[in-house]
Fold:
Amino acid sequence: MITPLEIRQQKFRNSFRGYDREAVDAFLTALSQEWERQLELKRNLQDELEQLRGRYDTLKEVEDMLHKTLIQAEQSARDTLENARQKADIRIREAELKAREMVQKGVEERNT
Structure:
């Protein structure tokens, strides 16, 4: 890659009906300044890109962590719901059994 310094230091041969030396020097100066500005812009954009990549990586990690947390919360909710159903089933069975026992006891007391 050509550098701004190489552009500034570029020399051309003199010829009988050559270019205007001052115009060439002015053009090379302007070109080297613009080239330097473009190189600085490129460096700045590369730095910004690197920062954005780092930020993306951080946000991706957060997203992954949130996704895992959501999956765990969903599983925990399913487990809690299943436990509640099982406990409700047990209480219903116990209540039905107790009701049968009470009915049986009532029948026995009436028969005696």
User: Anything to note?
Assistant: The first helix runs from residue 4 to 9. The helical segments are 4-9, 21-111.
